Amino acid sequence: MNFTVPNLLSLLRMGLIPVFVVALLQGRLARALVVFCIAGVTDLLDGLIARFLGQQSVLGAYLDPIADKLLLMTAYVMLAVPGLHAGMLVPLWVTALVLTRDVVVVVVVMVFYLALAVRSFPPSWLSKTNTAAQITTVILVLASGMTPYALPVARFAVYFVAVSTLASGIDYVLRANRLAAHRG
Less Cβ crowding at N or C end of the chain, within 10 Å? Predict the structure, then answer.
């Protein structure tokens, strides 16, 4: 196993997920927000360190996206459950959309890996925009529980996430179809 600094940061991000959940369960939105932001910083740092210090690894290629998906999926599930926090609720249908898109992406990647030996399927700019929107929305929804000024922006962000998640999911399927046609 290759325990590089980026891999350890990805593991730390995974380890912060239960801390985030407990903070929400206790109604401590400020703590949950800080934990979520720390997790976000670990994501930024692991990518920078991997690239600029040459610490990219096969393990890291799997750990980083898994940590990202687990953190975001957990956040959206937790923020959709009534009574678990004092902030704005993310509508269940938005959470379902976010989760479904991520499951579809994982299944497509696995099928391409196993059936077509495709080892790389880099995210598009639309997918990266969606991820940034999802992260920003979690931050805004948490902030909406601490200050009413964040509520209108959080509401807008939730609907923007719904649109960007749908668009990036469709884009992903179209890109996968083109790649399959090219390979087949």
Answer: N
